[in-house]
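Worked example 3 (structure in, sequence out).
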C-alpha cells in the first residue's frame, strides 16, 4: 500500500489509530472513535496474538443497504482501510448470497479529511459513471454508511478528482452539502442489523442493534446455533413504529458449549397470523463458547 498521510489520531488501548488521506494534506486532527478490535489465532514471532481491526462496510442486496464485516491489519489509516474495503466490493461468496455494490469498478480513493464531524472523501471520477438515480443514491449511501460507523463522523462531503461536487452525475443529484445516514433512510430495508456485522465473532451476551420500520415497532432477536436451534432470544421495541425507521439495541444471552457458526435472526411480529413474520434478517456470525 502506498504511504498515506494521517488525518486523525485516537487512543486505543496502548496504541494509536488515525484516520488518513490517500494523497493530499490534512486539516485539524480529530478522534474517530474506536472500531471494534478482534483477535486472531495467528501468533507473531514475539509469541503475541495480533489484534485485527474490525470494520463494517455497506453493500446492497435487493435494492437495500446491508452492512458486512471486514477485518484489517492494525493500521493508522482506519477510514482509508474502511473505504478501500468498500471499493474492493463483495467477496465471491458474498456475491453468491446476493450482495452487490453500486460503486463502479475502477473507483479509487484519493483522500479523506475529518473536520468538525464531517468526513470529506475525495474519489476518482469513475465514481459517478453509469446511469440510474437509484444506483447513484445507493453508491453515495454505501460510502456514507461506511464512514459514519465512526463516532466522530456524522456526515460526509464528496469531492471528485480533487474538485468539490455541486451536482452529482447526469441524474442531477444536488450534492453541494454534507450528507448523513438520514438522507438515505429510504434505502434501508424494513429491518437492518448494524451490529454485529456479517461474519463477526461474538460473545454472550451479544448486543444486537440496528433499525426497524415495522408494525408497532416490535422486534424479536434470536441467536441460532450451528444446527439452527434457538439458543438465545429476547424482545425489544424500536424508537419508532410503523411508517418510520426507529433504532433498537438489545443484549441477548445465549448458551453454546463450544465455538461454532451461528446466526443472529431479527424479525417482526406475525401480526397477520400467517405463521411467518413479514420481515426477517439473518446475520451469520461465529459464536464463542458461553460461560
Amino acid at each position: 500500500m502506498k504511504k498515506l498521510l494521517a488525518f486523525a489520531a485516537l487512543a486505543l488501548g496502548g496504541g494509536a489509530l488515525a484516520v488518513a488521506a490517500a494523497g493530499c494534506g490534512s486539516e485539524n486532527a480529530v478522534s474517530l472513535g474506536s472500531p471494534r478490535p478482534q483477535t486472531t489465532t495467528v501468533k507473531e514471532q514475539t509469541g503475541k496474538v495480533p489484534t485485527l481491526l474490525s470494520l463494517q462496510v455497506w453493500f446492497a442486496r435487493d435494492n437495500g443497504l446491508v452492512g458486512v464485516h471486514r477485518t484489517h491489519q492494525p493500521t493508522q489509516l482506519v477510514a482509508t482501510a474502511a473505504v478501500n474495503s468498500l471499493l474492493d466490493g463483495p467477496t465471491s461468496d458474498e456475491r453468491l448470497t446476493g450482495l452487490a455494490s453500486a460503486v463502479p469498478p475502477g473507483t479509487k480513493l484519493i483522500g479523506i479529511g475529518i473536520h468538525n464531524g464531517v468526513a470529506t472523501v475525495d474519489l476518482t471520477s469513475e465514481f459517478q459513471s453509469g446511469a440510474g438515480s437509484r444506483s447513484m443514491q445507493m453508491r453515495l449511501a454505501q460510502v456514507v454508511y461506511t464512514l459514519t460507523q465512526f463516532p466522530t463522523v456524522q456526515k460526509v462531503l464528496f469531492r471528485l478528482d480533487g474538485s468539490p461536487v455541486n451536482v452529482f452525475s447526469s441524474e442531477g443529484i444536488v450534492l453541494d452539502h454534507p450528507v448523513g445516514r438520514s438522507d438515505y433512510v429510504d434505502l434501508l430495508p424494513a429491518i437492518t442489523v448494524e451490529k454485529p456485522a456479517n461474519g463477526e465473532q461474538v460473545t454472550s451476551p451479544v448486543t444486537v442493534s440496528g433499525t426497524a420500520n415495522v408494525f408497532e415497532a416490535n422486534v424479536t432477536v434470536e441467536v441460532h446455533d450451528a444446527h439452527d436451534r434457538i439458543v438465545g432470544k429476547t424482545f425489544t421495541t424500536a424508537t419508532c413504529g410503523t411508517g418510520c425507521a426507529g433504532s433498537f439495541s438489545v443484549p441477548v444471552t445465549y448458551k453454546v458449549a463450544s465455538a461454532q457458526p451461528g446466526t443472529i435472526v431479527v424479525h417482526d411480529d406475525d401480526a397477520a397470523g400467517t405463521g411467518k413474520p413479514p420481515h426477517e434478517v439473518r446475520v451469520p456470525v461465529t459464536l464463542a463458547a458461553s460461560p
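Notes: The first strand starts at residue 5 and ends at 12. Residues 1-46 have pLDDT under 50 and may be disordered.
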